[in-house]
Amino acid sequence: MPIHTRTSSGKVEAERQISTVLESFNTDLRSIKSTTAQVQEELQSLHEMVHNAQQMAVLERLDIAKGASFDSNSDEHEPTCLANTRVELLEEIQNWAADSSAEPIFWLNGMAGTGKSTISRTIAESFAAQGRLGASFFFKRGETDRGTIAKFFPTLAADLHKEYTRAI
């Protein structure tokens, strides 16, 4: 057999083998990329789990006031405004809450027994039903947990975290 035929058939065989090796290499490379993406997703998931566990550990250490939220069992029998009462004030508070340019705090004040807590519970109940309530805290004179500001911020932090995680 002439040399150019042997060289030509050898070249064709070498190219075929190179092509086979390259196809195998590309298949392996795609597999490695896929596995790498899966590992990255698993690491992200693991990172989120660890982060959530750390947050839960911090939240569990918070000294919160039991029964301070508007919907707590301890206040389940506390009243809200009767239908068609305090309409103007409730509307004013609703409008204030909807106005992004309004002051950040609505100061509801008045003498003892004038209905501040009832109005606040009504607003909190309304906002909760709309998915707009982040947290609430109802002080109660004479109660250890709810009678002072000591547990105000930890309780709000815990409630805000609970609402935030529920929302996402």
Description of the molecule:
The chain is mainly α and 168 residues long.
Give a quick summary of the entry:
The chain is mostly helical. The chain has 4 helices and no strands.
Annotate the secondary structure layout.
Layout: H1 3-61, H2 87-98, H3 116-129, H4 152-167
From the N-terminal CA to the C-terminal CA, the straight-line distance is 76 Å
- The oligomeric state of the chains shown is single chain
Please summarize the sheet with the most strands: none
SSE order in H/E notation? Answer: HHHH
- In round numbers, the mean pLDDT is 90
State the shape.
elongated
Strands, total number: 0
- Taking pLDDT < 50 over at least 5 consecutive residues as the criterion, the unreliable ranges are none
Indicate the proportion of strand residues.
under 5%
